[in-house]
Specification:
CATH superfamily: START domain
Largest sheet: 7 strands, antiparallel
CATH class: Alpha Beta
CATH architecture: 2-Layer Sandwich
CATH topology: Alpha-D-Glucose-1,6-Bisphosphate, Chain A, domain 4
Strand content: 35-45%
Helix content: 10-25%
Oligomer: single chain
Structural class: alpha+beta
Number of domains: 1
Shape: globular
Order of helices and strands: EHHEEEEEEH
Number of helices: 3
């Protein structure tokens, strides 16, 4: 199957916050476990660097997803590969883009996930991204993340 068979996934949400706060919440390994079901996303977020999706909120622990930073322009844009830990970084995975735009008193956060390898991944992210981003929005606006069952 070709990646051309699966559409790009795009999710847009509006968050009452500053761009810098949204960027920090998306990239700070001490914050991501709060709203991402205990997952710490760890990297220095510099172009060419690796990032890991660490289980149990432990920035040095086991990870199930990883990737490489392709573009990093704080606090407005971050692009990285997203692939299973067993897949070598040289074999590029899907690609996630965060676009963070200030729109008056709110931020427009657009998450685009492209180059999907199969329908299983499309189905997984179609359930995962809305839950994660709703929890992020709740955390940034109220200080309390949503609790949801991750699959």
């Amino acid at each position: 199957m070709s990646t051309d068979e699966f559409p790009d996934y795009v999710y847009v949400t509006y968050i009452r916050a500053a761009r810098e706060d949204v960027w920090d919440a998306l990239t700070n390994a001490d914050i991501t476990p709060i709203y991402w079901s205990g997952i710490a996303n760890v990297s220095n977020w510099q172009v060419g660097s690796e990032w890991t999706h660490c289980k149990d909120g432990d920035p040095t622990g086991d990870y199930d997803i990883w990737g490489q930073i392709l573009e990093s322009s704080p606090p407005e844009r971050l692009v990285f590969t997203f692939q299973p830990a067993a897949q070598p970084l040289e074999t590029q995975g899907s690609i996630v883009t965060y676009d963070i735009e200030q729109a008056g008193e709110v931020v427009k956060l657009t998450v685009t996930h492209t180059n999907l390898p199969d329908k299983g991944m499309l189905n997984g992210i179609s359930q995962g991204w809305p839950a994660i981003l709703a929890s992020l929005k709740s955390y940034l606006e109220s200080g309390e993340a949503l609790h949801y069952e991750s699959r």
